[in-house]
Amino acid sequence: MSKPHIRVLIVEDDVVDRLACRRAFSKDPDCEFTLLEAETGREGLDIARTQQPDCVLLDYNLPDLNGLEFLSELASDTGEVPLPVMLLTGAESAAVAAAAMKRGAWDYLGKDVDRHYLELLPSAIQRMLRERQLAEGKRQAEAKFRSLVEQIEAITYVVSLGAAPALTYISPQVRLLGFTPEEWLADPGLHAHQIHPDDRARALSAIAESRAGGKPLRLEYRLMTRDGGVLWFRDEAKAVTDEHGRSLFMQGILVDITQDKLAEEALRKSQAELRRLAAHLENIKEAERKRIAQEIHDELGGLLTGIKANLSVYLDRAARAGTQPDQLVADAAKLADSGFQSVRRVITDLRPSVLDQLGVWAALEWYAGQIEKRSGLQCLCDIDPQTADMELDPDISTMLFRVVQEALTNVMRHAEARHVSIRASHEDGVLTVSVQDDGKGIDAARQLNRESWGIVGMHERARYFGGELAINGSAGRGTAVVLRLPLENRHAE
Q1: Which of 2, 173, 332, 452 has its CA 20 to 30 A from that of 365?
Q2: CATH code for the structural domain at 5-138
Q3: CATH 3.30.450.20 is held by the domain 150-256
Q4: Are 221 and 235 in contact (CB under 8 A)?
Q5: What residues contact 45, with CB distance under 8 A and at least 6 apart?
Q6: Each residue of 468-490: pLDDT tens digit?
Q7: Rounded to whole angstroms, how far apart are CA atoms 352 and 211?
Q8: What topology is assigned to 358-493 in CATH?
Q9: Which helix (H) or strand (E) holds 92?
């Protein structure tokens, strides 16, 4: 197996020292070294630039340049030394070594009088090249990472973990907030300061918890721009771990979701306006029902009552006279009675008067009795005494009655039930009204069907008043419709 080949430039004005270096490299069993030699700094610079050795072994004391000056001239316009340089120092090693490392030297080795340093040269050069290779690989990986993340529109960042987590990288997209990456990195408190005051405590608590335990973070909050603007961001971060599962650092991304939030707000406002419109139309419809029911009661009901009374007088007179009444008149009396019952049913369906006269709780008890008469269902109405004493806002009362009415209509039409119960109670400021049957149970598809307008209507009525409606059903176990409504400001004035 062939040995690795390393080309070393020795910049050394002392012939004896150069010969000693040659001898040391020739004895190394692991690598084959090719040596390039220069007696002056200028000669060394020329060879370094033209022949591109793998590394440079540089003596500090040269006849024309010292080691620090050599490093300065070898450096590129950006200040980066293009080759790994190991500096050989004498008695002044500590101060010179520190200055050399600042100017781009990779490592240094102190010359001792007995020249024991020569034994270390081959291994020191190999170690330096390995470290340089690893560093270059890391640099290239970081460059690829930066190139990748800096193409992402979102702000990407890296936070070191430990006793005091610190931001170590943030992408140029932070300029979206009006700051440069350098400004953001230089001020550890800038991120916290730019969080919107209303979100700050919540956001900082979640971020601290995530970083303390290396837990994934997903959080939405607002950040203030330099000029006072407000942007919404989704902050997502995840810990990067070593092979033992220990968290090393957090990689995160801040995605600008301002437009999404504006769209959500516009949608929310639109939905609220639609609910207000639907409620307004519902109120108009209820008022119209009430007006029509009243007119039917006063006009048609009064007319049928008068006809029935006149026919009853005729039939009573015939009975007292012992004569057989005209069959047409008897039939007309029956029709008038049937018509009167129909008018009462229509009036009740339009707007039960008990709802306006005695309130929603009495109306529910009355309606439960009507359900039993009409359908044969056993209908229990259980209003707890404290709830029964409550007087609610008329609009709320109408909403509760209509939701229960719709739920009972669904039971009669679809449930194939034998028993149904209406229950009302309140606890911790929340009113709960439920309708529970023992029928076949509603299926999930019907609950999710947006064309089930009765169910949609129940949900919308509840939402408008700040309530929640839940429908739970399973095959063979019946269905429960549960309405929960906060009681704050819901009482009649």
Answers
A1: 452
A2: 3.40.50.2300
A3: yes
A4: yes
A5: 70, 73, 74
A6: 999 988 777 889 999 999 987 55
A7: 62
A8: Heat Shock Protein 90 (3.30.565)
A9: none
